[in-house]
């Protein structure tokens, strides 16, 4: 597999301390699960036992009890930590992971209870569900936001732009759910991880370069996760779901109504064309600076500083992402 242009995170910078710490947490959970198998029922999400053991709503998102899941999760958190943490900073990186993981487990819990009352299948209540794959799905949404036009080629047969990765993953998981046993183990985490990460990035993430939250650009609207032919159907549904999760703020963004303004002046980032230009200029500037930082590291013996955030020079008004 190769890419049309390298993502900044692949340019030789060392793994961040935070991503290595998260990897260590995943390894520790796996070791505990193998040494003390009974802990799976208490650290994983088991909807029938969540009350009174409510802590599994938190622990399930960081608990891997299968070897394949552990390897994939470690590789994912190390790579995407190196890619995203320098862009956001450690604080926002942690907030993103925490929000996405908790949103995923809460929604999975509610979905399992609902499906149990509909179908009466007790396995929905007592099948342990856990893993970091909900957050990994969320990382793909972040890549869609920051580097939407990077193209991934698989042996020159499959060509897929980064902006379609989240949708492609969800589609594969939904199709696979018809052929594999216990889809409740992985499908809700992937689906809700994708949606939860979009909610955070769309409405709540604080942009360090400006005093506002979220990403109001048309290019990051929920409808962009679907083919254009179904956009007229998706947009009204997205507005309703957004209002349930985020209230009036969601209506303002996805409804494209006059609430895009505050005090009669447009909110920063609300103009789609300007938001696109800022994203393009910011991505180019970030890649150049990450490349320069990588060369600087090589010049001092190839050692990485391990810093969680690369010091960038202040961006001018025309370079803000």
UniProtKB/TrEMBL annotation:
UniProt-listed InterPro entries: Rhomboid-like_sf, TMEM115/Pdh1/Rbl19
Pfam family, one: DUF1751
Source taxon at top rank: Eukaryota
GO CC aspect terms: Golgi apparatus; membrane
Region listing for Disordered, in residue ranges: 263-321
Keyword Transmembrane: yes
Transmembrane segments: 21-40, 60-81, 93-118, 124-143, 164-180, 186-204
Membrane topology field: Multi-pass membrane protein
Protein location: Membrane
GO biological process: retrograde vesicle-mediated transport, Golgi to endoplasmic reticulum
Keywords for this protein: Membrane, Transmembrane, Transmembrane helix
Compositionally biased residues, Basic and acidic residues: 274-300
PANTHER family noted in UniProt: PLACENTAL PROTEIN 6, TRANSMEMBRANE PROTEIN 115
UniProt-recorded name of the protein: Peptidase S54 rhomboid domain-containing protein
Protein source organism: Marchantia polymorpha (Common liverwort)
